[in-house]
Design a protein that fits this description.
Chain lengths: 199, 199
DNA sequence: TGGCAAATAATTATCTATAAAAGGAAGTAC
DNA sequence: GTACTTCCTTTTATAGATAATTATTTGCCA
């Protein structure tokens, strides 16, 4: 489990970008970051490249990296992509859904409802969505969905953080219920509605 | 336009992986590649990371990179993802489709039909698919589709290269025709069928 | 002969140093 | 006063060297 330094830096920076701690458009200077992490700039470069791969930063050659902007058009785009891909994943997932997997998902649902801060809720919300989709067994699809969730999370932090309050998510419960009764189309349509309005 | 060295290496390696010149499972050794390109290993590392981001290679920390395998299950997965995302893109694209864009697409279609080798056909086929989808104006979606096309291309090279022969693609023509007459649902269903069977 | 262990080789990850490019400031010509 | 040029600073990109980790081989003992 020897996590590489670049890994650590990538995790830290992506978290900062997601929460808005690093604002859109902000420059990411290699040696400043290197100083912060008490390392050289080489692993920083690696981490920045990974940020770029996940759409969190953009590089202009010889001019450095900047945190990507998240305009409303892209937020809508991400939502439509999530609708398309999460529907697909859920249809496969529902077929493979075991009682065990359902219990795991319901546990994640409860954890999410019980979160007592926005960052905690956001993390647990992602875990819930992943839990209901993981049984699809399509790794590439799940990976793509994860990236979209990261973009969604950025938007959630930017626009909902102040207004957030603890609440029971009825959509989540309804999805679990539909999965339990093997009603795939109901589960899918609730999920689609949920994605479209939760953002 | 100062292309960085890492750029060049990435292009070359990805091309080799797509065409099967670098086989699945093959190790990608940093200093060997560095020697081949007469450079140091640092830009090589960058290129390898980009390969990983596009799903063409996988890294195990401290153990190096390997070209990813392309098992039949993943091929099916990619097809289903393409169906989901290209449908979405086409629906937006059809709405924004200008006569000019249609002409460009039809030109791409003819070029594709006239290709006289498998690699040429593959490149032009990708250009055609991109041409009919680009007007959707959703950059993130197009980018995701591009990555899926790369995976599809690997499969095409692996399984169709010997059997390839020049032919007129009637699906392509039918899609253009449907777009011309603004029949979005017809265009979409032809595209879906096309993706499912062309692979 | 087979299996374990230490040493060796190969390879990756990181660091330090150098080169190249871009951006900005100051000075001069008009 | 404005625009252009040149120099200086900042920052990124690459190279070469070092450290750390893994794989392999060889030698020893049962």
């Amino acid at each position: 489990m020897t996590a590489t330094i670049a890994d650590t830096i990538y995790q830290a920076l992506s978290q900062k970008i997601i929460t808005g701690d690093l604002a859109a458009g902000e420059k990411l200077r290699q040696d400043h970051i290197a100083r912060d992490f008490e390392t050289s700039h080489v692993p920083v470069r690696e981490a920045l490249l990974r940020l770029e791969a996940h759409g969190l930063a953009k590089s202009e050659p010889r001019k450095g990296m900047r945190v990507t902007a998240l305009d409303p058009a892209e937020v809508r785009e991400v939502i439509e992509m999530r609708v398309a891909l999460e529907s697909l994943a859920l249809q496969h997932s529902a077929q493979n859904m075991t009682p065990t997997a359902l219990k795991v998902a319901d546990r994640a649902r409860k954890d999410c409802d019980e979160a007592d801060s926005m960052p905690q809720w956001e993390a647990r919300n992602r875990i819930f969505h992943r839990a209901i989709l993981t049984p699809c067994g399509l790794p590439r699809l799940l990976h793509a969905i994860d990236d979209l969730h990261i973009a969604s999370a950025r938007h959630l932090f930017a626009h909902w953080r102040p207004k957030w309050m603890q609440r029971i998510d009825t959509d989540h419960a309804a999805i679990i219920q539909a999965l339990k009764s093997k009603d795939v189309s109901a589960a899918t349509s609730i999920l689609v509605r949920h994605i479209r309005r939760a953002n």
